[in-house]
Design brief:
295 residues; mainly beta; Thiol Ester Dehydrase, Chain A; twelve-stranded antiparallel sheet; 37% strand
Length: 295
């Protein structure tokens, strides 16, 4: 008799709503990211390590790394199925994989993610092995796991006062305060020659989530809003990966710095960047790839 472990795969139906789409009537990349996290939350709860379960021990999940590959942006009112499953442990992270499947069976997008368990009071990571049984998921497929690595930015993008971000990102409860010389909220500053750009955003109450910090997909929205590069009518975001390094809170100023990457693929435009909390170091690092629109 076989004793093979049946890995739990969660299926979450979703419909693309009017508030999920852009001017092209297709779901935006941040909307896809939110679909994934909602499905992840529901399955984690069904397996006994969801939001409420961790809350009983003064813990919560923090998304630390995310990689997403989009094959096609779904249309408004389109019905999809999100498949997600725990993809084992790579301490200090718990890994999770995703596939978005259309009603006709084609793969719309795939994603991989890495999560930390964090103490509510101290905002310090707790050993993920105390929450998830690694042996149950050691044979699970790991989607895009090779992209869940530390993003190393061009030296020109790192602030002179900062050393590279830690290989093990951890959440922090520190809130930045205004100080002399800190960036102020202003219009984007363009570097036409290099197609680089910088912009400073202030965190608003509408940017916050249930953990009272800036929601991770809000950062992606800021990046896409401020990007002085491919126009939405000409290019679309094909893939991205993000390392989330630190929390920001209401009133914090976040400086975004982005610069082009050399591409080895025809017609692909890459960007790399960093977000800096005023006086508080790196918040996140990102790599994005854009391609000509595929409709």
């Amino acid at each position: 008799m076989s004793t093979a472990t049946v890995l739990p795969v969660w299926e979450e139906p979703v419909r693309v709503h009017t508030f999920d789409v852009g001017p092209d009537n297709r779901a935006t990349a941040p909307a896809l990211g939110r679909y994934l996290q909602e499905a992840a939350s529901r399955q984690a709860a069904s397996l006994g390590f969801g939001y409420d379960n961790l809350g009983e021990n003064d813990l919560f999940w923090v998304l630390s790394r995310l990689a997403l590959e989009v094959y096609r942006y779904p249309l408004w009112n389109e019905e999809l199925s999100i498949f997600t499953w725990p993809a084992g442990l790579a301490p200090p992270y718990a890994l999770r994989s995703f596939r978005l499947i259309s009603s006709s069976g084609d793969i719309v997008a795939e994603a991989g993610s890495a999560w930390l368990t964090v103490e509510s009071a101290t905002r310090r990571p707790r050993r993920v092995e105390t929450v998830v049984n690694a042996k149950l998921y050691e044979d699970a497929e790991r989607v895009l796991a090779d992209r869940l690595t530390r993003i190393r930015l061009p030296a020109s993008e790192m602030p002179a006062s900062e050393t590279p971000a830690s290989e093990t990102p951890a959440a922090s409860g520190e809130t930045a305060q205004s100080r002399a010389g800190a960036p102020t909220e202003a219009s984007p500053r363009k570097n036409a020659a290099a197609q680089a750009w910088e912009e400073t955003r202030r965190v608003r109450p509408s940017d916050l989530d249930g953990q009272n910090h800036t929601n991770n997909m809000t950062y992606l929205e800021w990046i896409l809003d401020g990007f002085d590069g491919p126009q939405p009518s000409e290019f679309e975001l094909k893939s991205f990966r993000m390392n989330f390094l630190k929390e920001t809170h209401n009133g914090d100023l976040v400086e975004l710095r982005y610069t082009p990457l050399e591409s080895t693929e025809d017609e692909t435009l890459g960007m790399a960047g960093i977000a800096l909390q005023n006086g508080g170091g790196p918040v996140l690092t990102t790599e994005l790839k854009f391609v000509p629109r595929r409709d």
